[in-house]
Amino acid sequence: MTHCASENNFPAVGLDWTAPQPLRCELETERLIIRAYRLGDTEDVYNAINDSRDDHLLPWMPWAKDNHTTLESTTKYICEQMLSLANPDTFNNVGTGIFDKATGRFLGGSGVHDVRKDTASCETGYWIRKDAIGNGYAREACARTISWALAPQATGGLGLQKVRIYCSSANTHSANLIEQLKVKKEVHQRNDYCIDTIGPTDRLGWGIMHDEWDCINHRSIQ
Ligand SMILES: CC(C)(COP(=O)(O)OP(=O)(O)OC[C@H]1O[C@@H](n2cnc3c(N)ncnc32)[C@H](O)[C@@H]1OP(=O)(O)O)[C@@H](O)C(=O)NCCC(=O)NCCS
């Protein structure tokens, strides 16, 4: 997102990160399971997005505008996420589901995105269904996902070197959450993040290096 435009067209070899094989996502926290989507999740994901779309996911999640408007489109999305994990050689993105450990209820989405081989880095993001916010679920899921991204491959992680998180300066809930994880603010780009209902807003960005994060206790060691 904050890359120079030509970087995406002409990536360097750099660290030449490769994904673990097999590629799996099955993470646990005190209250949550964060895992790869399965076909059986389709209806729950579709309903959660449609119950949360209008005043909650929009305007912050641009994909919510035109996606998941039919059960078929959510089925397609889930198949794409499954295929992404099934192909470690081409892996560069996956959305994962956040579930209540006690009840199995679908709570929202997380994932790793824009995985770059040259810098061994990725972006992460999150959303929580409207009727489940305010419980600290996003923070818990985000911290666990960062640990998945940065932990060595031998311990079940992706073995990346860096995780990036971005949000609009107008998204105070998201910015607060990231600040509370005590990760370093790296980016403040003026009027670089356009929100449909607001217009251009500032882009804020945070970065966590692998030696700044405790992947066992899921917290910053800064
Ligand atoms: C932004 C968003 C993900 C936040 O979800 P959330 O689960 O409510 O967020 P948090 O994990 O930060 O928890 C929020 C509050 O829960 C409360 N909470 C309750 N129990 C808690 C617990 N056990 N642990 C931590 N917090 C708890 C806290 O008071 C916390 O507020 P605080 O910041 O005052 O400490 C959610 O509002 C959302 O989905 N928004 C739309 C999509 C979006 O903007 N995504 C981000 C795009 S960049």
Output the CATH homologous superfamily. Gcn5-related N-acetyltransferase (GNAT)
Shape: globular
CATH C-level category: Alpha Beta
| Tally of helical segments | 5
Q: Give the name of the CATH architecture.
A: 3-Layer(aba) Sandwich
Q: List SSEs in N-to-C order.
A: HEEHHEEEEHEHEEEE
Our count of domains comes out at 1
Characterize the structure shown.
α2 (42-57) packs across α3 (71-86). It is globular, with a radius of gyration of 17 Å. Helices cover 27% and strands 30% of the residues. The strands form two sheets. Strands 1, 2, 3, 4, 5, 6, 7, 8 and 9 form a nine-stranded mixed beta sheet that branches. The protein has a two-stranded antiparallel sheet with strand order 10-11. The protein has 222 residues and is of the alpha+beta class. Residues 56-57, 60-61, 125-128, 133-139, 167, 171, 173-174, 176-177 line the site of coenzyme A.
